[in-house]
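Re: How this chain folds, sequence and tokenised backbone to follow
Notation: Tokens come from a learned vocabulary of local backbone shapes, not from coordinates.
Start of record: The labelled sequence and token lines come straight after this line.
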Amino acid sequence: MTDSVVAVIGLGAMGAGIAEVFAKAGHSVVGIDYNDEALARGRGVLTKSVDRAVAKEKMTAEERTALLDRITWTTSTPDGVREASLVVEAVNENQDLKASIFRQADEHAPADAILATNTSSLSIAGIAAATNRPAQVLGIHFFNPAPVQKLVEVIRAPRTSDATTERALELLRGVGKSPIVCTDRAGFIVNYLLLGYLNHAVRLYQDGFADRDTIDALMVEKAGYPMGPFTLMDMIGLDVAESALARMHAETGDRLHAPAALLTQLTIAGMLGRKSGEGFYPHPEAGDQSAVAWADVDLPTREDELPMKLVAPYLNDVLGMVERRYATPSDIDTGMALGCRMPKPFDVIAEMGPVALLEAQRAIYAESGEPGHRPTQLLTKLAAADDPAAALAALRG
């Protein structure tokens, strides 16, 4: 399939990276953006990326030239998608804009072409509804930077066909990616689980359960996470996390998905993390910023309850995904390990044991009274099995 044509619409950092991925694998690529200036920016991003690869000896100069020769550039969506077997849209997270692009792509792309959106959280079904081929529309969510990150989420809308999903998976594996599959719900797999955990960490901090540094340190030292939740949020961008949580809350109605008050306050104040110079931590390298005063306040710490206070609800959410047939244990493990470098959640459940996890989650639910903290039926069932470890192993397959 390396001789097929892939059209990429929207050439920001993500779109340019997606174009690079397919061109590197041997596909002919058409890069599309709305005007010459945007097109030149996208071309510059891609060229800089491959030049960096050559400098690091990850690509030869000849391979760089061949890659760039496979890409053509245009400001015309109708012309750009006319011969494409796959169209990938990677514009801003604006549902109306994406729907407009999909209407154009649907009108001009070949009848058998797959239309994919790289959205990180918007409704795939809503975007597919703008076309006359909803069976051939799905989400293909790359992680940043696309040329480096192996993980890709493939999101099926209600009318996405099995054949479309299989074609997309084959294409992604062919370009060296590790795709996972889920259904069309806010946050998909990785963001749904990760943001729920991060939001809970902010609530523990704002409510005085423990201080920022202690939570960050214990999640690294005891839970084995690559970085603490506040360090990670500063890297992601507090505005990005807050916006995604708001979309999740709007869909699920779960109060645990409503952005924590402190997260919203910091976003409004422009304290967005590394990119603004301060967030949960000061980042003077991004500008002349002073330390964040509230972050230095000592809070009483109940270290004996951390990190379980954060890990148990996260694992309960993991089991809820499986219970609702939203994603498989294998895909969840792959998503969190590759996408976040976190321990595979089902390995953690196996190490902890369903009985101990149920006990911890019941205690959290008794304290909070939040419906979202209620132990899932699947967790209860696993813990009640004659051999909980065997039941978990059977679930994993």
User: Anything to note?
Assistant: Strands lie at 5-9, 28-32, 71-74, 86-89, 114-117, 137-142, 151-156, 178-183. Residues 288-297 have pLDDT under 50 and may be disordered. The chain has three domains: 5-183, 190-305, 308-396. The first strand starts at residue 5 and ends at 9.
